[in-house]
Automatic annotation (TrEMBL):
E.C. code: 1.8.2.1
Essential cofactor(s): Mo-molybdopterin
A GO molecular-function annotation: sulfite dehydrogenase activity
Alphabetical list of InterPro entries matching this protein: Ig_E-set, MoCF_OxRdtse_dimer, Mopterin_OxRdtase_euk, OxRdtase_Mopterin-bd_dom, OxRdtase_Mopterin-bd_sf, Sulfite_DH_SoxC, TAT_signal
Pfam families, per database record: Mo-co_dimer (PF03404), Oxidored_molyb (PF00174)
Protein name: Sulfite dehydrogenase
Taxonomic lineage from the root: Bacteria, Pseudomonadati, Pseudomonadota, Betaproteobacteria, Burkholderiales
Amino acid sequence: MGAPRSDAPGFRTLNGLLPRRALLRGGLLLASAPAALAQVPAEAGQDLPPWMLSPGTGFSVYGQPGPQAQRVLRRPGANRAAPGNGVAWTPLEQLEGFLTPSGLHFERHHNGVPAIDPAVHTLRIDGAVRRPLDWRLADLLRYPQRSHLGFIECGGNSNAGWNEEPIQRPVGSFHGLISTSEWTGVPLRLLLDEAGVDAQATPWVIAEGADAFAMQASLPLAKLRADGLLALWQNGEPIRPEQGYPMRLILPGWEGVTQVKWLRRLTLSAEPVMARNETSKYTELQADGRARQFTWAIGVKSLLTTPSHGQRLDERGTYQLSGLAWSGAGRIRKVEVSADGGRSWAEAALDGPVLPRCTTRFRAAWRWDGQPAVLQSRATDETGAVQPSRAALLAARGRNGYFHYHAIVSWGVDEEGAVRHVYV
């Protein structure tokens, strides 16, 4: 893709990086495009393409991706020892914008996708409440609803970053356990109030899914009351089975394991349940012997999706750097990019809308001179938290890490234009 010329009047480059206003001056994008792209021959009436010479296909009841997108697919990584357990990665490097198509939203299952009959399934709130209550899907559709546009990221996303050597896979195949959707449903506060809870006596809520794993998560009542959502819809349609149909818990900004799919029960409790996924998993031993546990909020993070591992720069010239940034603490304040491994930085342009606890697309223009380079991005959120370098994250968390890896990601570009994952 073309980008502003580095020799354009008024533009000073920083290791090939151009200022944000260069991206806003669209005319320069066209001016620097390869000559072959600009020289589209004038169309003569007798040379119309074949698709203009006969009627097209008819209507369809549900749109499907075109043939050009047939290879844009999730990438499953199933656990061979435990059928139904594993993940399917979102192909981040093949997507644009900040939303994820519902069919490409990443998957994480512990024992397969249940086939739930919505006419039978219920949500129950019980435990330390004044009156236990049950709701069918039809009941819930009568309640006030609201929408939340936000990301869900698995706590184990990017865990290959803890490896001694940089993994060589497409960016979506080790950072692709994050996806962004619009979730619509009933604010949990309404249902908790109806059941009658004592926030002082019962600070915990045990959420349980209706899958064959009976997934459980211990959650603070305060979070559920603050912004918890019982989602019934995803991107305007009923939640897909692999995403939790008919109802899913949504907790904006928190790790995916807390956002229990196929939700069937919320039990008010004085203590956490200490389930498998909050004791033997999703906890980490630190260098000082203590363990990190209940680390729900996602740290500030960003990465370049273009260019990224496996892609190639065909020739010297200007390129668009593009990627995603997000934070569980709120909005992204800024994203900086570097072309020299972090020695110097330039601020990228953010695509709007910049929403709290949602992915934000960023872009920058860079002129590659044919020399080796190391491309990076670094995000800062509205609380002032800055994405750490890999060295800083390792220093803080030690070598036993597996979850919540959010360090700066580095892509090395060699003299041939090949892009690989590197550590700096």
